[in-house]
Design goal:
heterodimer; A: about 260 residues; six-stranded mixed beta sheet; five-stranded mixed beta sheet; 10 helices; B: about 210 residues; mainly alpha; flat
Chain lengths: ~260, ~210
Amino acid sequence: MKKSLIFLVLVVLTAALIAGCAGQKAESVLDKIKTSGKVVVGTSADYAPYEFVDDAGKITGFDVELMEEIAKRMGVELVWTDMPFDSLIAAVQEGKIDMSISCFNYSEERDAQVDFSDAYYTSEDAFLVTEAFTGTITDPLQVAQYKIGVQSGTVQDDWVTTELIDAGLMPESNLSRYERVDQAALDLQSGRIDVLVADSVPAKAIIQQTGSLKIIYEGMLYTGPINIVLPEGDTALREEINKIIKELQGEGFIDALAVKYFSE
Amino acid sequence: MDFGRFIQYIASGTAYTLGVTLIALPSGLLIGLVLAFVAVYGGKVPGKIMDFYSTILRGIPPIVLLFILYFVMSGAINLSPFWAGSISLGIISSAYQLEIFRGAILSVSGEQMMAARAVGMSKMQAIRYVVLPQMIRLAIPSWSNEAAIVIKDSSLVYAIGVPEILRRAQLISASTQQPFLAYITAALIYFALVFITNRVLGRVERKLTIPANP
């Protein structure tokens, strides 16, 4: 029994090793996109107004329309793949999707795994509270005294973890990490958390939809430029995408989209 | 979004739920059944290997195997989310079904096998004509339990982006801020699927009951 157990473990490990080595591809994803005539893009369609599902059940939003224009200029068909936000980076890494646009901010940890395009927009963070909240926040670090909610895997999660928990300003038990930002908004309304830290644009969309929340602080923490996530080390693809983003910025296309989706 | 469209959006995920279930459950049945016979009649070493197979797989949460198959093994086999989900649920289910069928085979008394061999049947014939018809009947109640579990576990494939019932409920709840309605709809659809499956299997069980030996 013991011998066969060791043998099986060895077989599994070897298989995993082979699988790992076979995973390293040399050719550019750009060639694959051009030859197949389609680009597979991942997004997590639960982050209005960047990406969400409209009345007809179609994926739409700021990022979505932008990506559709980019695909059009690459001359290829666009195939959307929706998956939970924290699965997206792994999916790009493993080549399950060609790239991902889902309101990604730059971070060093992410950059070690994947590449980033040039920024196509700049976002801010917001602290969202209920109407009944009476405290004031002038310095973002003051938020450490409250129970905080974030979407897991986001840069806001990163900020709270690094600047507040690791810095010893608050216990980890006071932070709730949610799979999606709308779940966090529900817990905010029901009083399980005091402050929701999120990107300011979706935060404003949530205020509009619920009509019962407010923002007490707005500013840049770890957020800032948002980028498209691309496979690691794929220079040809990155240059192509950056070229198109530059074109679209020059033509005012992105500004027009921002007005369409972000103006209240 | 109007109510009808809301419900319809979530309900259209049922096709994926059924698809995953209809691949996972029968493949688990086929593998589980064969392996159960190997485990009982295959001798010492194959029996040990079957033990190992079922112990390992029943010890892995389905979602972990799903991530391994979809993300970790992607260099060797490039599976679509749908197939990665269906296959991993099928593999896990095969281990549970192996145990269900092993138990059912063992409840058919060993003397029947001896008697069948004594009247000149081969081991395969004895399995085919004596043991199998009895054990299938014995296995149906616990098997319908497993069927219900696979239907519900199929919701896990949302994690790699299959737009089934749960993922659709999440998306619509995010865009409309109506989580109660979204998840109640999802719950009712799952309930209906499991309820119908159990009813059908209950009927099959009654049909197959041997009148003289209830």
